[in-house]
Amino acid sequence: SRPPVIAVDGPAAAGKGTLARRLAAELGLPYLDTGLLYRAVGRRVLDTGADPADPAAAEAAALGLTAADTARGDLRGPEADRAASAVAAIPAVRAALLDFQRRFGAQNGAVLDGRDIGTVVFPQAEHKLFVTASPEVRARRRFLEMQGRGQAAEYDTVLAEIRARDEQDMNRAVAPLKPAPDARLLDTSSLDADAAFAAAMELLGVAA
Ligand code: C5P
């Protein structure tokens, strides 16, 4: 039978990336971090000096996206977060990235993480997880992550930015962040990475 598509959606810093990467390795599936696509588009717009919320500039950046753009070193951090969330609200940007995501998963199956994988990109995915955690827990994780990278960070600022990005991602008109009706919910607020992985394997019905 065809290898499965596994959709891992949820808000910023809920632990989706770590979890999705590990599921892919465990199950021998390709992995795609779809947030990276939006981050790279946001960076391309910033490079041109345009506003990431400018639909024409953002669409041009999305249509011209190359693999090298997703490998640049400046895709993490508050500026990239904001730019990604801004371009992600533009329908033409989402449309431009849709085919690539679908082709990535269609052939050999895949684990994809993002905001709309289970609702829009692969509504027929065999497995869907919606990974959440409280804003405070997510802010703390992101704060520690930034400290680890040597980026200046303040917890209160990180928490405010997480809340702002949740707002923007949940309330946009196109492909808003929300669980697919058939998604399994996984709250990682009190779980470390190992416990989240074990819980996910159980929800997916795969023995760890
Ligand atoms: O997952 P990550 O935090 O890297 O995503 C960055 C931004 O890209 C999100 O805040 C969201 O606005 C956007 N995004 C999206 N749809 C996806 C993945 C990311 O809208 N599938």
Description:
The chain is an alpha/beta fold. 53% of the residues lie in helices and 11% in strands. α2 crosses α4 and α3 packs parallel to α5. The site of cytidine-5'-monophosphate (C5P) has 14 residues, from α2, α4 and α8. This is Cytidylate kinase. Belongs to the cytidylate kinase family. Type 1 subfamily.
Number of domains: 1
Q: Give me the CATH fold name.
A: Rossmann fold
Total number of helices: 9
Fourth CATH level, the homologous superfamily: P-loop containing nucleotide triphosphate hydrolases
Kindly provide the name of the CATH class: Alpha Beta
Along the chain, the helix and strand elements come as EHEHHHHEHEHHEH
In CATH, the architecture is: 3-Layer(aba) Sandwich
Q: In angstroms, what is the radius of gyration?
A: 16 Å
What's the arrangement of strands in the largest beta sheet? 2-3-1-4-5
Uncertain residue segments: none
InterPro entries: Cytidylate_kin (IPR003136), Cytidylate_kinase_dom (IPR011994), P-loop_NTPase (IPR027417)
Organism: Rhodovarius crocodyli
GO cellular component, one term: cytoplasm
EC number: 2.7.4.25
